[in-house]
Structures are given as C-alpha cells and as structure tokens.
TrEMBL record, chains A, B:
Pfam families, A to Z: AA_kinase
Organism lineage: Bacteria, Pseudomonadati, Bacteroidota, Flavobacteriia, Flavobacteriales
One GO CC term, this protein: cytoplasm
Protein name: Acetylglutamate kinase
GO biological process terms held by the UniProt record: L-arginine biosynthetic process via ornithine
The enzyme's E.C. designation: 2.7.2.8
Domain Aspartate/glutamate/uridylate kinase span(s) in chain numbering: 4-236
Record InterPro entries: AceGlu_kinase-like_sf, AcgluKinase_fam, ArgB, Asp/Glu/Uridylate_kinase
Subcellular location: Cytoplasm
Catalytic activity: N-acetyl-L-glutamate + ATP = N-acetyl-L-glutamyl 5-phosphate + ADP
General function of this protein: Catalyzes the ATP-dependent phosphorylation of N-acetyl-L-glutamate.
Length: 258, 258
C-alpha cells in the first residue's frame, strides 16, 4: 500500500503567522501523499469576543450555540483554512480546503444531550474515504478544518484530534497511514517536568507499563487512548512532537505503534 | 461537447434563508454538470459593522483593506460558502466549496493603484480549467465564492460577476458553457418601469439596436458588455432572470447569444 501522512496542528500555532508559515514550509516538504488538519479555537474565541459573543466552556469544552457555530464556520472554514491553502499554494502544494460537508467527506451526528447540552457539536459517524481519495489521486492536498455536517444541512463543530484519527482510520482502507500530532512539546515525556525526557517509542506493552507506573496521566491519557484506538483500527504509526520539528526522516517525535 | 451550466446568485438572496433554500433546490434540480458562484457583500458589510470595521465604498465599489479582507474571507469563504455546501449535500448534490486559492483554480493580480487604491482586490488572470474539470469529472459540484489569490500567498477580493464570466470562458475550452445570472428582475427590461417588458432574446444585432435606441443604460450596460465579451470568448449562451425562476427548460429568462 502507498503511504499517506496526516498532520494535525493546534490552535496555538495558528495565532502566530511566522510560526505558521515556517510550519507550512515543513509540511510542504513532506514526501508523498498528505493531508493537513487544523483547529483554530483561540482565533475563534477572540473573534467571538469582538462580536460580543461569550465563549461558554464546561470542563474545558466549548458549548457551541448557534451564534458560536457561525463564528466557528467563519474562522475555521474561512479565515484560517483559506489562508493556509493560499500559503501552501505559494509553496507549490496544490491544496484544497475542506469541511466535512465538502464532498460529503465527514458525516457526524449531533451529540445527544445528557448532563450537558454541547449544542452544535458532532461526533463523527462516517468518513467518505473513496471521495477523499479522488482528490488525493488528482494530486490535490486536502486541508481539513474542524467542522463536519449531519447530511441534512447542519454544520457541526467537531474536535480536530478526533477528525484526525477518524480520517486516518478511514484512509487506512486505502493507504498505509501515519498520523503526526504537532504541538508545543517534543513528544510524550517520561517526566512532565523534564523536557528532555521524551520517550522515543511507545508500543502496546510499554504503554501498559507506563499506565501501571502512573507515568501517563492528565491530558496525555485520553490522547494516547485515542492513539491506540486508531492503531487498533488500521492506522500504522502515530507520531507526536514539536510543530517546528516536523519531518518524516528525523526521530525527534515520539513514535507510537501497536 | 458536453454541456455545463454556471449559475451566479447575488448578495440579496443570501440574506434570506427561505429564499436561499428554495433557490438551492432549483439549482439541485438543474440537469447535467454545473457550478454555482455566489457573492455575499451585504452579509460581509453587516458583520464588518458588528466588528467595528467601517465599509468604505468609492463609486459603489468596496475598498478592501486588510481587515475587510479578513471579514470577506470569513463570510464568503466560511459562513456563506459552507452553509450552501451543507444545504446542497442535503439535496444530494455532492458540492465542494472553493476559493480561487483552492486547487489554484483562479489566479488574479492585485489591482494596480491609479486614481483609487482598491486595496486587496484582484483582477482574474488565469482559470485552471483542467484542475476544475478534475472535480467535475469526479462528479463533484463546485461552489465558488468571490475570492481569488495571487499565487504568492495573498487572497484577493474579486467581483462575483467577473468570476462567473471568467470561469465560463475558461470552462468553454472543455464544455458547451451557459451562464445563468440570477437576480431580482425577470430579465433585461425594454422599459425599466415595466416589469413585464422582458426581452426574451438578445443577439448581437438586437444589442446594437438597443444600444443605439438608448434602451440599455445604467447598471445593465456594463453587465451586457461583459456578456458579449464572454460570448466572444467561447461562452455559448448567457441567461439573465429571476432567482426563483431558475430551470433549464423554461423561457422565463432573457437569453443572450452572439
């Protein structure tokens, strides 16, 4: 199977044009077929504030009411996505910006109301891997923002990490798929207070050990759980590391495999 | 040659969800290959005002400074475009939303400063008809908003009528192309005060007559000049008429041919 790299960047780097442009040059240099996924929550929060819309969070999660969804659609789908596409075109990457509504690429279901009503938030149900592959086969590079749709005309806000892993699982039907989660840390740390304690390789058995020793906790725990879930559903390798270190050749990232 | 219909809707209909959804159903029912082009100026003006950004116009034309371009990118490329795409998906049209930056589809040049500095406004230089055709051949329906790019990373605001005619000229290399300009009037009127005076068919010789008689003037003059320019560059037919009358079979529109 041919290789496919799916790279995810978070909201922090999108705030800083210089860092973003440096990252996009690294992304442009990645070899082979590739997909970019981006968030943009911080920018959305700032523009919502300017528009007088309060960003409501419960347990660190955004409540997406109708007017917040409008802001997200403007900021993720328009401002952030189209500027990234234009920058990539300037680096000779034939990028195409997408939400899950475009080519019906990612269908989701509005999250049912239990204890909390998260509003217009979608949980991914289906990735149209064959339609997405038509774009890849045409030598276009998809750039996904964190928006899906329900197929009935409703756009839905969807976590960018989830979009990334669901996309990767879907594309694993057609490609040997690797994920690159890019963030501020150099990888998964053995000692959270020591930036130099990056674990180079985590497999299933080391993961169990680390869990038992309580080394993986807090924010990293759900991330790694999601990683092993994606690996168990066909994704080949997951890499986590610093946005400004992205290459396919280096071993700067934490590599995660079954 | 296979037929291709390119439909353009203006800013007014986008303001009204009920009219927009009714129009999108008519668009969905059009037979054969098709492309939609939309503006969104009124919505952009409203959101700019909410953000405290003054919309500067000279001779009825928007001056696009950096912060206005941000609003346009959010509103045209995000809010309006992605909601149209989601609605079309609900009508089983496999839509894909695009700016000129996506798949490098429309490259433009920042308008040179003469008497007026229009800011980040682009004049179309190149339509990548073969790239756009890859989407059409894959059975996707392109939905263009009124944004292009300069190929060097800069997005540019571009008149939606111009995008429509340039797209149509470009696609005429591959298809027998018809344009449908949809607006509030039933077509080109012989008597501007009589809504029932729609001229059913204008060809080159009638156009000359109407010009000589001074029947075509004001806003309609540049529109028709653009039409005949497009027809002289390969577009087969141009239709002008009421948004809520769009079908390929009826003769409600003014039909314009060489």
């Amino acid at each position: 199977m041919e290789k496919l790299s799916i790279v995810k960047i978070g909201g922090n780097i999108i705030e800083d044009d210089t860092s973003l442009n440096a990252f996009l040059k690294l992304f442009a240099n990645l070899k082979g077929k590739k997909i970019l996924v981006h968030g943009g929550g911080k920018r959305a929060t700032a523009i919502a504030a300017k528009l007088g819309i309060e960003s409501k969070m419960i347990n660190g999660r955004r409540i997406t009411d109708a007017e917040t969804l409008e802001v997200i659609t403007m900021v993720y789908g328009g401002l952030v996505n189209k500027n990234i596409v234009a920058q990539l075109q300037a680096s000779n990457i034939d990028a195409i910006g997408l939400t899950g509504a475009d080519i019906n690429s990612m269908t989701s279901e509005k999250r049912p109301v239990k204890d909390v009503d998260f509003g217009f938030v979608g949980d991914v149900k289906k990735v149209a891997h064959n339609s997405i592959d038509k774009l890849i086969k045409a030598d276009f590079t998809p750039v996904f923002c964190a928006i899906t749709h329900d197929g009935k005309g409703q756009l839905l806000n969807t976590n960018a990490d989830t979009i990334t892993s669901q996309l990767a699982v879907g594309m694993s039907n057609l490609y040997e798929t690797s994920i690159y989660y890019c963030f501020e840390l150099d990888g998964v740390l053995k000692d959270i207070n020591d930036k130099n304690s990056v674990i180079k390789h985590i497999d299933s058995s080391l993961y169990k050990e680390l869990l038992e020793q309580g080394i993986i906790a807090d924010g990293m725990l759900p991330k790694l759980e999601n990683c092993f879930d994606a690996l168990n559903h066909g994704v080949k390798t997951i890499n986590m590391g610093n946005t400004n270190m992205l290459t396919q050749e280096n071993d700067n990232f934490t590599r995660i495999t079954l």
